[in-house]
Amino acid sequence: MLVYGDPKRRERADILCETIAAQLRALDDRSPGLERHAALVGIFIKAGELVQGLSDFEFESLGADEMSAERETSGALLLDLARLVAQSWSQGFSGRLVLPDRVWALLKELWAPLPLSIKDGEGYAFYALYPECYMEAARRSGRGANTVVIGIRSIGTSLSAAVAAAIGATAPITVRPVGHPFRRKIQVGPQLSQQLLRDRTADFAIVDEGPGLSGSSFGSVADWLEEHGVSESRIHFFPGHRGELGPEASQAHHQRWAARPRNVVELDELVLGGGPAPQRLDAWVSELVGPLRQPLQEISGGGWRSMLQGRQKSWPPADPRFERRKFLARTADGTWLVKFAGLGDVGQRKLENARLLAEAGFTPPVFGLCHGFLVQKWVVAEPLAPSDFHRTEFVEHLGRYLAFRARRLPRPAARGASLAMLCEMAVANTGEAFGEAVAARLKSLLSRTLRDDLPVMPVDTDSRLHRWEWLAGKNGFLKADALDHSAAHDLVGPQDIAWDVAGATVEFDLTPQETAALRAVVSDRCGRAVDAELQKALELFYLAFQLGLWTSAKFGAAFDEVPRLDAVVARYAKLLLRRIEGCAN
Fold it and tell me: Phi and psi of 180, rounded to 5°?
């Protein structure tokens, strides 16, 4: 099933340099504390994106990773900032931070009007992956300053600098694995090869998030090292979790992964354990909402469903792959949802959007952001009942909500999947579910439906309008989770608001009249018409994507979760097949 994507955004190197410089100057005006540290980490992440973009720009022109003056300058900049992050963390965010004078010269050297392709680090945006975790893992690893640190781009660019700073190593080298996702390879130029291999006694630290389905990015670097005479005993991994490689990994990679050290400090050890108060999540939350009456309650991975009334058998399905870490915090003033929203600019954008939506009455009130975790009021309410879906009041509210997103939320920087890409996904997922004959009928149907001139205007769509995401409270309807689904690492991404109209039609079983009413509300409040023909095509894409999403969620799911997943998959399959057959007749 086609589910995942690889969204990128376009930036210019000179503008990134100027932004980093401005944020560094503003850092001097901040008082010591968590907010200053979070701002510093955000600058570090942005510098990592700059270095990643420049390195990939060079890679595209050379066809390989190679030494250059720009690479050395980039590495020095990132290492200086990583050392500052390490200092801030180790001293509990107190004291003065002194930026090395050469940072300004390094930024000036990197200033150039070059178009860069930037990829947000998924770990920083979705999976509560903190550079401080890698620093602590490096400190505990026993590696010395003579370790050669290799980062895997994209996110490994900054994570490898965090490891190098913690062990006193020189600036890391980064590489870009390419090729089939399950069989990645790296291309290393002769000068860089010589640089990497010049110390025949050095150990190697390979740094990235993951591993995922195959671990082939980690494996590609280790393969290259062994092919060039480095013994397996000198290779050390710095991944994002302690798990094994995924089911698509080769046997050789499985064996190496099991044999070699994996240096990991996960979020729970870093900020949920018994460390000093300045470095604990409960202390960060207490600074925002007051003293906690009891420890934070974990409700991640579908755990939030235990807060619903009714029996477990009636719970909605959950897909932990796309859920954020979340907790409940209880104070004298009530209960708060503490949910990971992202580090750096990603978290700030979600905070701003959360405030806009809350002030408009569409989502629960927002209190603030503490180093990646968004704090919102926990609203005691139940998911909408099926009888609510067809109420005129709900359809009107839903239309106002979708129009508000399209009109008021900032346009996403990354592009979503094109209609051609969505078509490819829909045909592939349909073929896997129903066979090639049905897929061919869908392809023929879409070729007659889709036109080049269909009016597509991507916005920050909700993209998750499932019925269990909506609450019926004393003061009306609320959307429980509304911040980042169009920015997730699935292949859909930002779409025309017609995508959400299509999703609502599917999720709430709207009649043609109700869909027309919803479309009219959105069109009227957006100031532009939602194209009915586009919406009908997007319904097919939406169903095919949801079918693939929830089918793939069954692999590795808990035994008691499978029946819920089976039920939702069966519903999407039935609706998709009905639409294909109905349109074909």
Answer: -55, 135
